[in-house]
Amino acid sequence: MTDKVSTMDVRQRIGDMLNRVALRHDEFIIERKGKPLAALVPVERLEQMRRFARRHALEFMDRQQPSILTDAQASELAADAKRSARSSPKSRRKTK
């Protein structure tokens, strides 16, 4: 079950909410000014979401076309980017 709670509710009921998450596997959407800010979920659910994201990222990478750049070309592009970043003017703070 997913409940929506305000940040003020969380401050007042954090102990109860943690017990509900740990024991009953409840989930909470924490809102500030009516907008979702964070979620309080069981650790098992978080790990499940991470595994799902990793698996789909790997599947996506497997479906991609092999790179048309050789290692030498990729190294040269990286070196050019480094040189470009070093030579660009940076804003500096004035010291008193």
Derived from helix and strand composition plus strand pairing, the structural class reads alpha+beta
Alpha carbon gyration radius: 24 Å
Low-confidence stretches: none
CA(first)-CA(last) distance = 57 Å
> Superfamily at the CATH H level of the domain at 2-65?
YefM-like domain
CATH class of the domain at 2-65: Alpha Beta
CATH topology of the domain at 2-65: YefM-like fold
**String of helices and strands:** EHEEHH
Strand share of the residues? Answer: 15-25%
Percent in helix = 55-70%
Q: Which whole number gives the mean pLDDT?
A: 86
Q: Based on CA inertia axes, which overall geometry fits?
A: elongated
Biggest beta sheet summary: 3 strands, mixed
CATH architecture of the domain at 2-65: 3-Layer(aba) Sandwich
**Total strands:** 3
Side by side, the strands of the main sheet go: 1-2-3
Number of helices, counting only DSSP H or I runs of 4 residues or more = 3
